Amino acid sequence: MVENEIIVYEWKGIYGFFPYIPRIANLRQLPKDDEAKIATDWIYNFKSKGKGSDKVKEMVGYLAEKLQCNKIIAIPPSSIESQPNALQKIYGNHIWRIEDTETRKWKHEKEIPEGYENSFIISGVTRDDKILFVDDICTSGKTLNYYLDFFHGKGITAVSACLGFHYKLKYKEAKNIEPVKQYVKADIKQNEEHPESFKSCEEAAEYLSGLGYKITWRTMYNHWKKKGYIQPDMGDRGFSYDRVMKYAINRLKKKATLKKDKEEGFADQLQKEELRGKETKRKLDELKLLKEEGKVVEKALIYQQFASLTVGLENAAKGQAQIDADDAYELIVNAENGPAQFVEIFNDILDRALNEMAKMSNIQVVFGEEV
């Protein structure tokens, strides 16, 4: 871990900060300076001893600010006697376990059991709140997604986070963290005729498209598998009508809305282009004025004069070298101190070449005003 650097990762709509390796056997195989091992030790010390609370507050607070969440709620442990856990000691007991539930420590793929909602109570939360849930470890995301759906069912805006992702999850760095959108509870009229469920993304996307939503089965599949915006609740691949409509209302736009956004975006683009054109014209006018005042010399003219100077220096040096060639050769061959005198002659050749170059009538030197 790098001190004072907060990097946020994301996996299927859940945010996190570090990798976590749960098995001691795997940890023992890693060197002491391995980043995943260091992160795992740090998370374990926080969970078991409460060490590093200030760092947790800093990281989670940073994420809450980015998401514009006004309240942070800790996920409770599975047993009553384990309360308050390290996160509850920081963020309070907004969710409090009142009935023990089966631990999911080594059974993360199991579904949340029926009646789970009776195992906890909620306090100090209103519909105007924007909640950031935080758990210590995310292995499958089922617990965090359960609370997310539970709060959404009450019409409360919420998003999930953890301190550490299971190291095998394919999480990625969250480079653009946007404020969480206000959750809109789906107003579903039960007396209208509609399918009770959908067997696949293809069926759900086709139905939503018929209602005017901009959606394809591939987009919905990506929202399920990669983004975690929607999860099956009717078997492995099926979705209930209520879940599909909540997903559509909170994640999708209707075609008419998209057209309006596109038109407004095009108008904004035209305005930006017009402003850029005006700025370019202003800069050109300013440059023209500087030229007229003699404060600016064109680059092409500078290059031309530099080339003339170079050619002049070359010709003058060659001429002077030819004149003094015999003397230089005799010094190198016959004199004991020939090299030193040769250097002296060479410097003299260069000085006279520069003087001859300065006399050339085709060389012009343009001086600008001193600043």
Explained architecture:
This protein is 49% helix and 12% strand. The protein contains 12 helices and 11 strands. It has helices at 24-28, 35-49, 53-67, 86-91, 142-153, 201-210, 217-227, 241-251, 255-292, 299-323, 325-334, 338-359; strands spanning 9-11, 14-16, 18-20, 71-74, 95-97, 120-122, 130-138, 157-166, 172-173, 197-198, 239-240. The strands form 3 sheets. Strands 1, 2, 3, 4, 7, 8 and 9 form a 7-stranded mixed β-sheet that branches. Strands 5-6 form a two-stranded antiparallel ribbon. A two-stranded antiparallel sheet has the order 10-11. Helix 10 (299-323) packs across helix 12 (338-359). The longest helix has 38 residues, at 255-292. The two termini are 50 Å apart. Mean pLDDT is 78; it is low at 361-371.
The structure class reads alpha/beta
Total strand count, please?
11
Number of helices: 12
Helical coverage, percent range: 40-55%
Per DSSP, what share of the residues sits in E-state strands of 2 or more residues? Answer: 5-15%
Radius of gyration (CA) equals 37 Å
Average predicted confidence as pLDDT = 78
Low-confidence stretches: 361-371
Main beta sheet strand tally, sense and closure:
7 strands, mixed
General shape: elongated
Measure the end-to-end span: 50 Å
Order of helices and strands: EEEHHHEHEEEHEEEHHEHHHHH
Secondary structure: elements and pairs:
Blueprint: E1 9-11, E2 14-16, E3 18-20, H1 24-28, H2 35-49, H3 53-67, E4 71-74, H4 86-91, E5 95-97, E6 120-122, E7 130-138, H5 142-153, E8 157-166, E9 172-173, E10 197-198, H6 201-210, H7 217-227, E11 239-240, H8 241-251, H9 255-292, H10 299-323, H11 325-334, H12 338-359
Parallel strand pairs: 2-8, 3-8, 4-7, 7-8
Antiparallel strand pairs: 1-2, 1-9, 5-6, 10-11
